[in-house]
Specification:
Elements: E1 2-8, H1 14-22, E2 25-32, E3 35-43, H2 44-54, E4 59-64, E5 67-78, E6 85-92, E7 99-108, H3 112-115, E8 119-122, E9 126-131, E10 140-143, E11 152-154, E12 165-166, E13 173-178, H4 184-201
Parallel strand pairs: 1-4, 2-6, 7-10
Antiparallel strand pairs: 1-3, 2-3, 4-5, 5-6, 7-9, 8-13, 9-12, 11-13
Subunit structure: Part of the 50S ribosomal subunit; part of the 5S rRNA/L5/L18/L25 subcomplex. Contacts the 5S rRNA. Binds to the 5S rRNA independently of L5 and L18.
Organism: Planifilum fulgidum
GO molecular function: 5S rRNA binding; structural constituent of ribosome
């Protein structure tokens, strides 16, 4: 279990948060059952490296003011344009109690329908699950190697790791393979040809 060091943050004006970000710090909060919220900030580089190594579903040891607490990253707020992390929410957990978490869905394999000219469309990228922290997966694999043109795969058909319970709607479509659509330029070109031909005929 990886360790992330945090420092206490005071509830101050927005300008203080902006200054923290300029200093390479990410503001955040630690909260949990039967405990007060605690404002904090963490090193941006350390958090980014941790996410690259373990993903956003990892269970971490958060060190804050001499206390070490098992946590999960409950939410990451990012800049919609640059993608930079603006704020992080840590949720304190117990290793013997189930947690609820959104984890990414990762497509695996190559769909025969795509090789035949179809278009693979992923409609769902995250799924909400519940399990013990020790069983929390970094991602859930979705096998598309049997999908033909016209096929649809729902959450109910995606195998889950042992001990993991699905909380999202099982009828949600994860991925489908659809017929290729006529490109807009090609369609416009055909329309022009027909018009030209009609004019020439006149």
């Amino acid at each position: 279990m990886l360790t992330l060091t945090a420092e206490k943050r005071e509830a101050r004006p927005r300008s203080t948060v902006t200054r923290l970000r300029r200093q390479g710090r990410i503001p955040g909060v630690l909260y949990g059952k039967n405990r007060d919220n605690r404002l904090l900030h963490v090193d941006q580089g350390e958090l980014v490296r941790l996410l690259q190594q373990e993903g956003s579903s990892a269970v971490l040891q958060l060190q804050l003011e001499g206390e070490t607490q098992a946590v999960i990253i409950q939410e990451l707020q990012r800049d919609p344009v640059k993608g930079q992390i603006l704020h992080v929410d840590f949720k304190a957990i117990r290793m013997d109690e189930p947690v609820e978490k959104e984890v990414p869905l990762k497509l695996e394999g190559e769909a025969p329908g795509e090789r035949a000219g179809g278009v693979l469309q992923q409609q769902l990228r995250y799924v909400e699950i519940r399990c013990l922290p020790s069983q929390l997966p970094g991602e859930i694999s979705v096998d598309v190697s049997n999908l033909e043109i016209g096929d649809v795969l729902t959450l109910a058909e995606v195998p889950l790791p042992e001990g993991v319970e699905l909380l999202s709607d099982p009828d949600q479509v994860v991925v489908s393979v659809v017929e290729p659509q006529l490109g807009a330029e090609e369609a416009a070109g055909e329309g022009t040809d027909e018009t030209t031909g009609a004019e020439e005929g006149e």
